[in-house]
Amino acid sequence: MPRVPDDPSLSPYTGWTRAHWAELAERLLLSARPFASPGHARISFPGRAGGYGADVDGLEGFARTFLAAGFRVAGEGGDDPLGLMEWYARGLATGTDPASPERWVRLDEHGQAKVEAASIALVLHLTRPWLWDRLDDGVRERVIAYLAPAVGGEYPPINWVWFQIVVEQFLASAGGPYEPGDIEAGLALTDGFARENGWYADGAERSYDHYAGWALQFYPLLWTEMAAGEPAADERRPVYLRRLERYLHDAVRLVGADGSPLLQGRSLTYRFAAAVPFWLGARYDLDTPSPGLLRRAASGVARHFADRGAPDGKGLLSLGWHGPWRPIAQSYSGPGSPYWAAKGLFGLTLPAGHPVWTAVEEPLPVERDDYQVVVPSPGWLVSGTRADGVVRVVNHGTDHSHPGSDLADSPLYARLGYSTATSPVLAGPYAGHPLDQSVVLLDAGGEPSHRTGFDTLLMEPLPTGTAAGASRWRAHWVHPDPGGPDHGSGRPGRVRLGPWLHVLSLVRGPWEVRLVRVGAPDDHAEEPGGRLRVGGWPIPSDQPHRGGGEAAVVANERVCSCVFGGASLDVGGVTSADDASPLAPWTLVPWRATSGPARAEVWHEAALCLGAGEPVERPVVTWPGSASDPTSGPVSDPASGPAAGLAVPSGVRIVWPDGAVDDFDVSRLLG
Fold first, then answer.
1. Spacing of C-alpha 306 from chain mean position
2. Contact at 8 Å (CB) between 343 and 214?
3. Of 218, 356, 392, 452, which has fewest CB within 10 angstroms of its CB?
4. What is the pLDDT of residues 145-175, one digit of tens each?
5. What is the pTM of this model?
């Protein structure tokens, strides 16, 4: 298929227009057809079967590509030159036939069918005049029978609740069985997911990730369309719209200038599904963000992947990020799973004359200015820098768990930092033994502690615009239980407790000043603590680290990662991790540590940077009132910090490279 030429006048940042999106959809759909079963009910993409088996994989292949087909036809008002509705109608007839060897796994046979049923029901709603209304009565009856086990079914109390609501709402509209009580109970449960500033948690835990946009913003508003005219839907719609509008103010600040979404959270292989919330803002004509900014964000995300091998040369989506990289998958992922990326094509439901397609693209926030934003719900300090186009998140609120738990850290959720230019270490020995973006104590055997279950202490902007956040946790070591499914959260196991750790982050531009206080061992501590180690940003690289010495500085062609330590963090280096992330063959992690057991009840200081090139100037950290020289220089000066003196001051002063000065009372964190 010939590539559509870029349009720099309409889309000066991405070049993409609606024609590019249509081409992407059609490429995905046509490339999938050779892998379809004879009756079109299953699309079984090449690759090792997923954790739920080949039958589920084939259903996923059908249902998820069906999303792309439905969005494409709905936005064209039924115009369908590729015969998409006829092709998928045959699959509907075959998949719902109990006697067919291609029949679908039923909702009462496997839970994953409940997920795929929601996609089927949603597309049947969006394309009703061109598909559902044209099916013969027998096929419609079989589809209703296939979806019917959703009624009264058990669904996990997370985003899955919306799958039941959507399916039952479609059944209600199609004359099938449904239970209003299921819908009412589901809506009440999802109300409990709502958090400050339009955010949603994926259930009761501190689970914040891309599901907040591609699921928890998506289904509520689509449901209000399906149930339009019913009091519950009409009353909730303005509430959902207000949440979406506020959420989008944060979401546009989480996209890098190169279009990369944040590499954080599970199901990253869904890739450009991350564009969903931007299309929602356009579909519902929100006042802000503007249509030009929404399309810039959405097209940036899709082009980021399209230019880097997703889809590949055969038009297929692999389990991976750019190219194939299976470790990014969770245990539930199979070769059809990546096609939930089709949700990112939702903008195609909007006709060519819609303002989101006709407005001139506007720059992303990271392309306009530097910013530090406090996002309290997920506990993130978000920093974007125009010079390198990188967006960073310093994390004091998300761990896919709850305060007081003592799980092992999930690298997708519990690290202290995530960005659009780096990936956490996701595979190999350092995935389960925190190194990158971590603060750990090392036991006598060198095993690092974990932080899941921390308490968030502080999230606030300072008067200068610097973003401040803090958390505390009891250091704990986990010997994980064997086996168990991988759904992205930390693993349970046998636990040993250690001292309390307090961590304060002050974030400005590419810098974070990170202050760490190790508590004295108490009666609950089975481990007295040991060496303190602060891990920095993980840098993707084509080769392992070749440098020597103790410099905690590493760079690639785009960004540099540095960790500078105060007096107590007197050793350092760079660790190379092989095949540890989807971005490059190697991941290089700089770190600083104490050479001996960390001194308790004093503040240890480090400055971490992720930016374009090795920094010339560093933040200057001083401790007015300490016995050490209060005029000491950069954080790496061995004379600085309370660990170099005798007193334990209550306040710290930071002079940033841009000249801003922050004074912070650290005693606030110890009450």
1. 19
2. yes
3. 356
4. 999 999 999 999 999 999 999 999 999 999 9
5. 0.95
